[in-house]
Amino acid sequence: MKLVLAPMATLTHAALRSTIARFGGCDEYYTEMIQAGTLLTNGPFEKYYLLTNPEPHKIVWQITGGRIPAMVEAARLLAGMEGIGVDINMGCCAPDIVRSGAGIAWMLKERRETEELVEQVGAVVRGAGKRFSVKLRLGDEDFTEASFFSFVDMLAQRGVQQITLHPRTRKEKYRRPPRLHYVGQLVRYIEEKGYAIQVVLNGNVQDGESARRAMAQSPGIAGIMIGRAAAQKPWVFRQIAQTLGRDAGREEDWLEPFTVDLLETGCHFVQELKKFQPQEFYKTRLQRFFAFYSDNVQFAHHLRTRLLNHPTPEGCIQRLEDYFALSPQERFKEERPPHKGCEGTDGLLRQEEPQ
Question: Which end of the chain has less neighbouring CB within 10 Å, N or C?
Answer without folding.
Answer: C
